[in-house]
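Quick question, first post here. What does this chain look like in 3D?
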Amino acid sequence: MTDWTTADIPSLSGKTVVVTGATGGLGYETALALAGAGAIVILTGRNDAKGLRAIEGICEQFPNALIAYEHLDLASLASVADFTRRFAASNEQLDLLVNNAGVMALPKRQQTEDGFEMQLGTNYLGHYALTARLLPQLRRAKAARVVNLSSLAHRSGAINFDDLESKRSYRPWRAYCQSKLAMLMFSLELQRRSLVAGWGVRSVAAHPGYARTDLIPNGPGQDRWLWQINKRLQPFISQSAADGALPTLFAATAPAAEPGGYYGPNWFYELKGPPAPARIMAQAKDFASAAMLWDVSATLTGVSFDEIAAAA
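> Answer (accepted):
Ran it through. Tokens below.
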């Protein structure tokens, strides 16, 4: 596994894929590689102009790529519902969902359209609702996968059920770490529930290590001092967005990717390098907290996996 590259991606001909946050960075590189392997790839994002440029960029490398762009804002439950309705109207099944979109360490507390703290809402709650609403299409696929993007930041994360949306106290990194821990817990809990309920969906998580994308300059990089340190260290501890996407691509396509697995780079502290099994912190394995987070998410979003599965 330590020398796994995009050349190892099997043929994805006939497979339908949705990638969130695919207009740049890790999402774009993920969509590019999946399109190159023959998949029917639906790129999603909230900036339509960037989406069209992403389509053009992929077509430049793969002129015969089967790709499309759809508007999807994970910070809006209405946008999530609209996207899933459009998708269901034209797609019987979904083979792969890559939950990649995210925001990082916003200096000031912001809210989503639905009033959620922005990092929790965009990074986690939007993806929870999206995955639930796409469950009928995932279940119709022969071997569907859901890949959820977590982060090294999950290691410092804690789910604060007493102030989940940071209304009483907001700290940028604490909120970010919580959101990425939530994504990993969601991935593990989704796999457990899929097995029990017989949904037939394989849930796998991944993280990119330290990948050079716009996520940092648009978030913590707004802190000039921190950004200067990052720029000096980057050549030694980081990797390109294309390399950062490899753990996601491994989780999404490799036959060896385990249900309930977690993959990241294999170098020191999992900062860079080819994909390998990643370290999962104890708090992510707290099954009671994961079940509670699942129930709270259903209440906050008004979207229930069990109700959707029963109605399908």
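Strands lie at 16-19, 40-45, 66-71, 96-99, 145-149, 202-206, 211-212, 239-240, 262-265, 275-277.
Residues 225-229 have pLDDT under 50 and may be disordered.
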